[in-house]
Amino acid sequence: MTNPSPARLALAGLLMVSAAMLSGYTFYEVQTSVGPIPLRWYDSEIDIFHDSALTNDAPANLVSDAISASVAAWNEVDCDHPVMIDAGAVTDGVAFDSDGTNSRTGTNLIIFEDAATWQANRTGNDQFDTSLTLALTTVFHNARNGEILNFALEMNDSAFSFGIQPTGYAFDIQNTITHELGHVVGLDHTLLDVPDCTLQTMYFQTEPAETLKRTLGDDDMAGLCALYAEEWKQALPDTGCSASPGIGGVAPSSLLAIFLLAGLSGLAIFSFSFVRRDRVTRRV
User: Fold this and answer.
1) Which of 5, 64, 112, 237 could staple 157 via S-S, CB 3.0–4.6 A?
2) Which CATH architecture has domain 7-283?
3) What's the rounded Cα separation, in Å, for the pair 11 and 224?
């Protein structure tokens, strides 16, 4: 059987479609031949690179420290889960690799992008308008078994100001990246009915100068532990389908774009939409 065509899903926000809702935390599922399976990594380690250019909004050493602190926040959760490896800087990095066709994969890179690069990465993707998106995490996964394969974490450096414990209208780098790394490991947004939902890192809103999301809330940690509670390092389910060569031995067949949308009110709001090749349905 040949691999299905890539399907693009842009996922985030209050409308939780195909999400496993436990407590206040949520995560994504795919429907497979053996039933619904959550999207998650099956590797024990996840390499996290960052582009050496970083941003002009803050000293490079402090930005690098902020990235390391965001990685550490998730690694320090006391349960069995993949460990993010702060793999350091790469020169002239790009968010996506392409084979020259319409197929592309993530490079496990955190990158601050200028306007031209940000727009170029949106071209031809049938996405909603991302001109007011603060940060965009794209997670590639195998749609047949839910295995997360790689990701790209893009920071919209031209449209927004970033900083380290900033004031005014700048957004805190560690606050933003800690939330986005929650999407990298497979978490969706916190449900509104969880106690202290606004105190969780995976809450769907933020605002300039906020630093609250630097520190994980109880629901964030519970979500990570629940997602990786059951044999996540065991062999992937046999779906009965052949797989052509690709990253991790299977060709990526779909991706999720999980993003932070900055509203005109000064808040940054996580919104939700599905994007597919033949039609676009958007709900916020």
Assistant:
1) 112
2) 3-Layer(aba) Sandwich (3.40)
3) 18
Going from the C-alpha of 261 to that of each of 160, 192, 195, 273, the distances in angstroms are 11, 18, 24, 12
Q: What is the DSSP letter of 40?
A: B
pTM of the shown model: 0.79
pLDDT in tens, the chain (284 residues): 333 333 333 332 222 222 333 357 888 788 877 788 889 999 999 999 999 999 999 999 999 999 999 999 999 999 999 999 999 999 999 999 986 666 789 999 999 999 999 999 887 665 666 777 889 888 998 888 889 999 999 999 999 999 999 999 999 999 999 999 999 999 998 887 777 888 999 998 889 999 999 999 999 999 999 999 988 887 776 554 332 222 222 223 345 555 554 433 344 433 332 222 222 222 22
The DSSP symbol for 8 reads E
